[in-house]
Amino acid sequence: MAACKVQLSCCYCHLAAHKRYPEDAISRRRGGVAKVEVTLDAGGRVRAASLAAGSGTLSLDREALAVLRRAQPLPAPPLERLSDGQIRIVLPIHFDLNQAG
User: What are the Cα distances from residue 64, in Å, to 37, 39, 42, 58, 92?
Assistant: First the structure.
């Protein structure tokens, strides 16, 4: 279980390094959390991604999905957590105006 927490922490840091705060969301003072459902293979490559729960702002939701493509490959998931060579997880992508720009 500890390996999963470390892997998720690495995944969040990796995504944060590639995340872009949409200009329209900044100008409209919009923040929030978009939850994305992601299927990763053993190498951390995104095989499927969809919006599990929107943030309430379309541009933030689009960026939550776009960052997954830009950041590939993500940190590889623990092998013991794979099922048929992949894992499906839901990741919250946070957009905080205090961290924009």
Answer: 10, 14, 22, 10, 9
Quote the tokens at residue 15: 């995504």
Kind of pairing, strands 32-41 and 86-95? antiparallel
Q: What is the pTM of this model?
A: 0.89
- Residue range 12-54, pLDDT digits in tens: 899 999 999 999 999 999 999 999 999 999 999 999 999 999 9
Q: Where are the alpha helices (DSSP H) in 36-92?
A: 58-70
Residue 44 contacts residue 76 (beta carbons within 8 Å) = yes
| Phi, psi of 94, deg, nearest 5 | -90, 135
